[in-house]
Structure to design on (1088 residues):
């Protein structure tokens, strides 16, 4: 996938996922805060479940498409793992990307089962997500042998977002519905998405001069740039969260705001 | 133990242990969910304890057999630690493996004492398990000096599963009976077991050509292969869990499924 | 910023912040302990909020001033990122420092919004603080390429305090108001502040001979010196805490001290 | 302190501390379990406090003696830090050891204040202990430059026990009175103590031949030996715990053991 498109595509997916999740969790958090003013809880719970089912199906679908694309497009290995004539592994990169998609697909499938049937405990969807991200980071970790300095560096920076997300998703197993963790995960997803785009621009500049991949100053600039992407991701999440909160805000006739706020439940557990 | 058998044997043990644990915890979780429909709790608790006692005895027995085998079979050191005539340590590998078995034996012994007497706090069995796995990983960590690249790499990959399991078992000290953590531990045990088999096939191929232990492509393939083993382990655990849940499912005349599910206890603590 | 002043200035800020926080949290903890003797809770809560608003504004203001100073003073880049005539990045150091200030500014801004409006969950201010410190450490981590041994070492030691603080602030998301964590964060802030001064003295001694930056004994001394700074920070926090506690102590006519003490709430949660 | 005695002395202290702590926590745990049979809680609490005060005083005293010994015995620096005539730091090793003692002394002092007055929150004693152990490990970490392989290795192994203990003590801030964590800390203390003795025997064999400090087999043996020390420490703690439990066991006329056991409080919090 060593191309601009090859980085822009997953980047776009993560950007969309991050923005979608931000909207979803902001909406649910706003709903939870308003729960004592009329909105019947049961209905909201049913619609939440419906939303989760749709989301899981979409993830499952795109993972499947991703695997197919990696295998059968252009110079894919077409499910052939070992080239016996030339005695070497066939298109290992494509196989690795397929494996990454496989784990996100598994996470989607499990989430689908959890939210359609009674078979499995609820927190399993977060564990599967944590494993999917961990697996992505794990494969990237051993992916970088023998590349030039800046190439290695931009991919290593990506690992902060990926392993960070795996950790946050794992913490959510124990603190499900904690809005802080959810928004942090959204932020890291958007960071990952925009950084994939950045990697594309740095390694395969669509126009303009090539970057010097061995210049230490470039490395320092790229590191700082990563911080800016994080700030940008935080900004996007904040704006989205505030917009959703404002749209679903409690009517002004309600009183005792101060008291309500102090007891504002940050975790689903407190309500369930 | 540098042989195919020497890796297949522990691999088989971990596979059996992983499958056994998956069945056990799935069954108990299903029992907990059904508890309000007639199954008397006291009886189930007594049978749980009986099961734990049997399991601990089996672990203790096989650890003891393992130590004896390492010491007295074929070219074992026969409890001789230092060779004074040649001035070198006698069969350090066998001694290291004996030490690993010793810690699993200790974990079994402590678990046996905990479940037969009132002497020690319950959570100690998980701590002992965590220590046993940590010790296994610790010894592997300093085990790999001077081997070839791929040999080191396949053993390092094993460490992810081993230290992961140690961590999960340690978390279980505080979250005892959390089905998510239990299933994660089962998955990592099966991963460890199947990976031991894989190591055997890679380093000592029973038939077919030898692997090139210095080829970087082999290393990348092996890394990806580890992900597939993880996916396979997750599949095994899922199928087992669903089968057990389906066999012990709540009778269909029960109503109010939705409500029950929302309050589905994920931890033993909530019931005790 | 490679100068004595350039290290003394941030050092002073952290020292002031650490001392301020120690006083604030000590006062609030003392107030919580005394709550059952007349001090009306509502009023204290309102004044707490006012204090938070002032503090956030000050942080926001100084971050803004810091960015402006880095950009426009003396040899700053004046918001120019790339020097197209000489084809190199313009003053990367100043840009990196600006980025650090930016994140502290963001933390201040979010904290301001949290404490003036109802928009966001309370725990977000600690998360933003954790991110700001993490970002500071992250930039320092890739900041040290090609410097001499002692220069790298004194900055690496700084990372213990910075990442430690990020971790403690993150833990506070889940254990808000835990006085132990709060005082630990204060200690690490003061440690960071005084160590910035130490770095200034070691690398740019204002008078006296230069240090030999390659002598291993100097490195060992500096390591030990870091411990002393930690001890000093602990001392400052202890003295401040005891002074505040003594000033706000419970009147002596109260009885049943032993019982009160055993139930001394260490976390805000227990009261809210 | 490069001598056999220099390692045996701290080793003995840690051994005594570990055994003492095991006895103390076993006794308190047994007392908590028996609390419903007559033993009045208030009296036990007062005697616990008295015990803590004595313990803190002893730690404080020996830390002070340790600092004095390091400074003024034989070839100590006698509080002189820099040798201006020869232009080098004076006896850095002794200063480092003094610094380690200083932090244990601080932990003792703070614990003394906590248990004699009402000034500070209870959990602070564990935090101070965690900091003292962390500081010990931190100084050891930068202590090993330029030594031979085995020398570095035996000290690195020590770090597992030291940082492990720091982590456990930090966890105790949040899970105070958890018998599992307390016994784990005791085990690691004894491990540390016996390993100090082992280091003495390996690096400065009092009789018999010197060890070859560059032989890789020695390194592998020493690693395994560390596991044995851990097993030994676990054995000592178990025997002590069982003995104390047996001495303070509940009288046999009590009934309903099964039920009591299931609810056996593992944490002080549940009782307080």
């Amino acid at each position: 996938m060593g191309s601009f498109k090859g980085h822009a595509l997953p980047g776009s997916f993560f950007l969309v996922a991050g923005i979608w999740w931000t909207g979803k969790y902001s909406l649910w958090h706003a709903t939870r805060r308003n729960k004592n003013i009329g909105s019947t809880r049961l209905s909201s719970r049913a619609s939440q479940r419906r939303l989760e089912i749709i989301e899981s199906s979409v993830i499952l679908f795109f993972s499947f498409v991703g695997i197919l694309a990696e295998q059968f497009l252009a110079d894919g290995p077409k499910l052939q793992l070992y080239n016996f004539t030339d005695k070497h592994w066939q298109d290992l990169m494509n196989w690795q990307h397929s494996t990454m998609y496989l784990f996100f697909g598994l996470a989607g499938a499990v989430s689908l089962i959890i939210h359609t049937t009674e078979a499995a405990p609820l927190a399993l969807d977060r564990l599967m997500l944590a494993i999917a991200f961990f697996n992505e980071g794990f494969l990237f970790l051993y992916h970088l042998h023998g590349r030039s300095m800046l190439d290695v560096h931009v991919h290593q920076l990506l690992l902060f977002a990926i392993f960070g997300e795996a950790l946050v998703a794992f913490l959510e197993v124990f603190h499900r519905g904690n809005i802080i963790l959810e928004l942090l995960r959204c932020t890291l997803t958007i960071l990952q998405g925009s950084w994939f785009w950045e990697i594309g621009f740095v390694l395969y500049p669509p126009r303009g001069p090539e970057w010097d991949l061995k210049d230490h100053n470039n490395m320092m600039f790229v590191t700082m740039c990563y911080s800016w992407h994080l700030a940008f991701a935080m900004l996007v999440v904040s704006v989205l969260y505030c917009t959703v909160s404002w749209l679903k805000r409690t009517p002004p006739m309600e009183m005792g705001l101060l008291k309500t706020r102090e007891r504002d439940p940050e975790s689903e557990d407190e309500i369930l």
